[in-house]
Every structure is written in C-alpha cells, then in structure tokens.
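User: Hi! Is it possible to get a structure for several chains at once, not just one? Here's what I have:
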Amino acid sequence: MTTQRVIDADVHCTVPNARALFPYLSEYWIETIEQTGFNGATDNYYPNGSALSARPGSVPESGPAGSNLDLLRSQVLDAQNVELAILNCAYAVDGVKNPYGAAAMASAANDWISAEWLEKEPRLRASIVVPSHYPDLAVKEIDRVGGHPGFVQVFLPGRSERPYGNRRYFPIFEAIVRHDLVAGIQFGGAPGVPPTASGWPTYYAEEAVGMSHVFQTQLTSLIAEGTFAEFPDLRVTMVEGGWTWLPSLMWRMDKNWKALRREIPWTTMAPSDYIREHVRFTTQPVDAPANPKHLRQIVDQLGSDDLLMYSTDYPHWHAEEPESILSIALSEERIQKIMSENARAWYRLT
Amino acid sequence: MVMTATRPESSGAVRPTLVDGDIHTTFASSAIAKKYLATRWHEYYDQYGKFGYQGFTYPKDTPNAARHDAFPPEGGPPGSSLPFLREQLLDEWGIDLAINNPLTHSQLNRNPGFSEALCQAINDWQLAEWTEPEPRVKASITVPAEYGEAAAREIDRLGPNPNYVQVLMSIRTVEPLGRPKYWPIYEAAERHGLPIGIHFGGHGGHPITGTGAPSYYFEYHSGMSQSFQSQVISFIYEGVFERFPNLKMVMIEGGFAWLPPLAWRLDSHWKRLRRDLPHLTRLPSEVIHDHIWLTTQPMEEPDRPEHFVELLEQGNLYDRLMFATDYPHWDFDAPSDALPKIKLPDGFEQKLFFENALGFYRLPDVYQRPVTSR
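Assistant: Yes, the chains can be modeled jointly so their relative placement is included. Here is the combined structure:
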C-alpha cells in the first residue's frame, strides 16, 4: 500500500508526565505540582503495559508509547508514506475535577502539542485538549488556540458526565463550528459515572469492548437532542470506537424515530440521514467479521462511501495489518476514498 | 412466499405452530396483589411499596407504555384481564403458547425482604390466575435478582413445576450481570434446567447509558440495546458460560442486529487482551452462539429488506431467534406483519415462529388448542 496516498485520521501522542508540561504551566500550578505531588491528568484510558496500548516496538527508551516523535515518524509517517496525520492526545483532563486545574492542564497540553509536535513535523495536524466537563472553560480554550492552523479538531472523550447532545454542551459545539473545527469524539473518558447502565464491570477488556456502545449512545444523543439541528454545519468524527455496529444503530434509531418523533420534533430527518451528513468514523479498530463478505455487506449497509477514514490508531494495537482486511473486502475506489480522500474532504486538508 | 403466521384452522390436540416469547401481565388491583402477598408485607406494600431508585423520569409515548386499545373493558391496567388477553391476543392471532413476563422488576424495590415477597406473590399469582385457567400462558419465575441467595431459593421452590419455563430478570441491574453476586441465580437455574430470560427495563440506580442520563424517552428506548450489549460483554468476559456450561439465556426485547458486530468485537479484543481474561478458554462468538438466544420484538427493520437477510447470515441467527409480540405494549409486533416482505431462507419462519422456542423452553409438543370464535 505504500504507493497509495494516505491520510491517517488517528495517531496518538502521550504527555509523559506533568513535568513535561512545566514550560507551559503557570507558577501556581508548577508550585502545586511540586508541593503536593499532584501529577496532572493521570486517569489512563489505556493501561500502560497492555498490548492494546502499545504495539511492539512503540515504547521508546524513555517515556511511554506515543511520547516520541521520531518513533511516530519511522513507524507511521515514513513507513506508510503518510501525507498527513491527525494527532490526538488522550490527556484525561476530564478526570481532574478541579475546574481550574483541568483548564490549566489542557492549555499546557495544547501548547506542548503545538511546540513539540506541530512545529517540528509539518505532516501533523492535531486535536485541541479541552476541559469538556466545564463547557465554559472548554469554550475559552477553543477560542484561545482555535485560530492556530495546526489544530483541526477538538478532542471530546467518548465518555462524558452527560451524553454530548445535552444542551449543556451546546456552547462547545458553537465554538467548534465558529472556528471551523471538527468535534472528535474519542475512545476513553474519565467522567466518574459508570461505563455501563449497570455499573462498573470487572475487567478492562469489558470497558474497552463496551466503548462501542458508548459511541452508540453519543450518536443517539447528538441526534435526539437536536445538536445537528442547532448547528447545521457541525462535523463530528467518531475516533477509535469501531463502526461495524453502525448499520444496526441506524436501523434502530430510524425505526424509533418513526414511532417517537413527536417527542423530538427538531429531529426533522431520519437519524441515519443525520449520521451520513454530519458524522465520520476512523477505521481502527475494524472489529472485522471472519468472513470478508460480511464486512463488505456492512460497508454497503452504511449507505454511503464517504463515512470511513483510514487510521492506524498508532501506537495502539488492534490488529496485525489493519488495512489488509479492508483491502480484501472492498473495491479499489472504495479503498482510495477510505485511505485519503474522505479525510481530506472532511478536514478540508490541502 | 412472503411469510406470515396464519391463524390455525384446527382445534383439539395439535402441535403448537405459533409461540409468543414475550407477553406482559400485571395485577388488576392492589387487592389482587395482597391476596398473594405474605400478610407481613401488606402494610409495607400500602405505605412504602415500590421504593426504588429516583431521578430518572421520562414521559413515555403512551399511558402504561401500552397500546391505546389494550385497556380491558372491565377496567384495570393493560394486561390485567385474562378474558381480554384471550380475545385480543391469543384467539385474535392464534397464539398457541405465550411466555408471560410480569415486569415488576425486583430492582424497583430496594428492600430485600419485600422484593423477595413480591416476587413470590407474582409467581403464585401467575400460576393461579393465568396458567392454570389458561394453559396457553406459561409462567416465568421472577426473582429478587439483587439478592442471589434469595433468588436461588425461589428458583428451588418453583423450579420443579413445569408450568414455569424460565427465570426472569431485567437488563438494568446494580452490577453487571456477569459479576459473582448473581452466580447463585445461574447455578440454581442450571440445576433445574431452566433458561434465564433477561428483559428490557429494570433499574440499577445508574443512568441508562455508560455516559450519563439522556434527556428523552427516544434515547431511553433506543439506548436499551446498549444495555443489552454491556450485559452480554459481562456474561462473556466474566466466563459465566464456562462456569455454568449448561446455562442458556434469552435476551428479550433488546433487538438483535447489534449482536453480530458485538461478537466480532469481543473476538478481536479477546485476542488482544487475553492477559486480562485468562479464565476464558473459548472464542466469544462461539460461546454466544451456544448460549444466547433472542426474541424478535422489536423487529429489526432495515430500509432495504435484503439487509435483514444478510443480518441473519452474519450472526448465524437462524436457530436462536424467537418470535414475540410484546403485548400489550405500544411497540407490539403482529405475527402477520413482523417480518420484512422478502424471501427468507427455507425453514426460517417455522424456526422463528415455533421450532426454536419449542427447543429452547420446556414446552409441550402437543397441547389442546381450544375452539375459538375467530
């Protein structure tokens, strides 16, 4: 696949520790960190040693996987001849309940991303880290860095205190649209509410698999609560949540919309039409069926060839050769759209 | 042939040809409830009964979430009159056997003693007022699910009676259902050869989603399928079916299109995260195939009916789907209109309408079909 044009819609960088952010933090927070042992955003959506968190060879000599630009270059950007990649920093400021602490760590992370990644590597574009649990402060941060041409997206953790369609989040989406950015809802989240409707599961693997039903909830919410009706120019990318479940969700929502739309009159189109107009999905993890025919059926059932955007999800490791599963199942034209053209159009990359 | 279940012509001793996997009945009045409730709880029932979890009130689409025409002519709530159930459901559609799922979820009562007593009352009432006068209606053992030992006692009390065909739980619980606190229920069900039926609804005190409370009933209703997904994840990754290898389950009113992609995701993550799950020995999709059945209502309705056929194949669902109406609720599926109007695989409709249920539940192969006015 090296001759093909490639845009990687999801690679990750990792803040190694709070001290790495000292150049970008105020004296107050540096002093707090030094005197209290507070270590910034420490909730981790990805257990450090898990195979899912770090593919073989991605852990640098010092620091965690995803903290070294040279490795990202050699393992992804150069290795796959990547034209552009969207850099997502899952820095869990949403787990920091102190509003000013969360905002300060988010700002510092964005300045760190800007100085240490975007300025050094022209093939990167990035997502803005925001204290999404304090929408007013999130808006301030979007306004502060939203004009930087390297930032193309706002990182919203997949799990939130309330589903993102809730009107308390409208100001965040207003700012995203005003700055011509994309809302990237991503695997993870540390809101403190349980990750299922029945409390906390036992194993990390349950939470990781269950993230796909959280993405389903977020989509349902954005449609039902009228976010797309309120912000007709809003673009949302679902990052690292899977997508083979999407046809089943579209069917269920379209069916329920026929019966229940009196309750949500602002939802004037079928939910599946909102999804095809306003939402895109990164390809990793594919969660592919064993039979390639079934994967082709699922892509047909999406009802549009615009929805999928290739991603490696580096340094996370879901499958040995992710693109090969898609190549076996799908036509050349479809692959070309998935590998670069859908993301180019969506993020308005030139 | 476009398939639909047709009203049977014959009466007398026949083999069932239409089984309804999900109907709902309820007490006609508190006087009826107290007739079956232990005396010690009567005052509690009047003064505090149904003390559950607060803070999650959604206006539903219809009163009692019921069909507007399902209120019995003699009064009482929908699903409280046997004569009307016969007229509007069993005779109207020629239903030979129906699985009764009373939805007085035990999680709606936090008091453990009352929860247990109420389940006992519901179970005795089901037999006395529904199944004995009307053999087409089969009973479920409702259990105080949050109290595993008490639930197991109730299963042991009633399990030997063949009129009870499953143990009934609800999908929303205090902890994920694969957790050890629920294992005594599975152990008792397996001991009696009873399947576990897990129904839409209930309440464990948590929001209906994994990311906080939504605002609308549309989200609540659509979101129920996400609750089912999280519980299947828990059952599989906790290794419940490896611990109880003869246990079978049916997911009732949760939809079913979400299952194939979930099984693929469980497989791929198991391969990547095996050190987190050393107790698992089998591929999750195979375990699902051997242990988890589903009812059809709400039927999946892709806008292109051929996608329905693809869904059956993707999930290899032919032997594990069972038809249900969900009477008397508003989202009732009629036997004549439930399936997409497209050629379905040979033999699938027979499996869906009766063969799968007759194999899954302990139901009679032959029963006395009444002569009806229809």
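The mean pLDDT of chain A is 95. Strands of chain A lie at 6-13, 82-89, 124-129, 151-157, 182-186, 236-239, 279-282, 308-309.

User: Great, thank you!
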